[in-house]
Amino acid sequence: MPIKLSITDSTFEEEFVKLLGMKREADADVDAAVAEIIADVRARGDEAVVEYTNRFDRLSIDAQGMAVTREEVDLAISDIEPSLLESLKTAATRIRAYHEKQMPTDERYTDESGVELGWRWRAVSAAGLYVPGGLASYPSSVLMNAIPAKVAGVERLVMVVPTPDNKMNPLVLAAARIAGVDEIYRIGGAQAVAALAYGTQTIRPVDKIVGPGNAFVAAAKRRVFGQVGIDMIAGPSEILVVADGSNDPSWVAADLLSQAEHDPVAQSILITDDANFADAVQKAIDVHLETLPRAEIAGASWRDFGAVVLVENLDQAPALVDRLAPEHLELAVDDPDALAEKIHHAGAIFLGRYTPEAIGDYVAGPNHVLPTARSARFSSGLGVLDFIKRSSLIKCTPESLAKIGPAAIALAHSEGLQAHGLSVAIRSNRM
Ligand SMILES: NC(=O)c1ccc[n+]([C@@H]2O[C@H](COP(=O)([O-])OP(=O)(O)OC[C@H]3O[C@@H](n4cnc5c(N)ncnc54)[C@H](O)[C@@H]3O)[C@@H](O)[C@H]2O)c1
Ligand SMILES: N[C@H](CO)Cc1c[nH]c[nH+]1
Ligand SMILES: [Zn+2]
Questions:
Q1: Residues 177 and 288 in one domain
Q2: Is this entry keyworded Metal-binding (predicted)?
Q3: What's the whole-model pTM score?
């Protein structure tokens, strides 16, 4: 059974802190294994990537077999039911439209001293897109990774996706084609992240690696950061539902299970002010689990990492939500906007009883690659900004340099950096 907490219990704070500290991610063993894999890929390149891929995903490929060919993609697409392809295209269109609105503009202005200042945005040259493929493979995650990169203007999109037991979801390849991915490799885990970061004989390195994955992927991304950029740590999925007693318990139960079914270490939490409603949700979860094909995973996740938090009234919810900083937050209340105003930390907020988190996973438009494990306190969901960077622009004239230069010279001297001072003074003196 999931943890049950009541804000009126004397042990609440202690129990809540335990909930915050629940470890669902990379432990020391995972990190040590990942460090070894990365070092091996750096040393041996393709040979190591192929070895790990064959071992973990039960394949028997060689270096050439890592790449998914154009013909394979054509063949996969030709087999897909047209209406499914249409759904994928609908999702792609909506995701693209949303991300196009995120594109920031360049700025240029002249300040009161006559100095021209500004900034401009440029895309990274090559992006590595990690698409999970272990427990399930997600065509939607291909779109969520690739479309913002394309909108940002990234020239080379390299996708990696593991294919355990050589099973590749054709829709994953269709999504890659629709989104404009340039290269696809059937590799995953830490070895794929290392290959993207350091390059191998077959795979050219990229500048930034994005996308969700399991504990091995998350640990590898942390380790290669610096060699390449990374987006965030998007680990096992999470959902936090804040619901009053006027909801249909069976809807809320389905929402909690929607993320629990991703992974036995996913986390679903309900905050409510109605104890009877909480019991009804638990009953509805049991009923849903009888029919869901992934009941084993969802049931384990709810049992081991689920939680129900009972508050006296929903005004107490925002402070708890902020401490949990969930990946997904559903506000199933009468005035979700008012409640959302009081909350600062959540990857994505789903407002109202008719906005299930699952709509955001597929077709709403915003990105479903979101910060987990409380990292929504300091990071955001994947978007166009992850694929571009800003260069500052500074342009002085003789007059404006003479105006602001003396302060620079004084500061340079105070830091003992005479050449700095000289490079400003030498120009000012010529005026
Ligand atoms: N936060 C998000 O935005 C988001 C989005 C989609 C999915 N997810 C999460 O991504 C995760 C996907 O995980 P997954 O496992 O299905 O796929 P995955 O592709 O992340 O991991 C599979 C790979 O893990 C590696 N691996 C497995 N066991 C290993 C071992 N013992 N030693 C070394 N490497 C090993 C293998 O290389 C394998 O190919 C889930 O937790 C899901 O909830 C998160
Ligand atoms: N909910 C996941 C992000 O945590 C993304 C996803 C993909 N497919 C379905 N859901
Ligand atoms: Zn999901």
A1: no
A2: yes
A3: 0.94
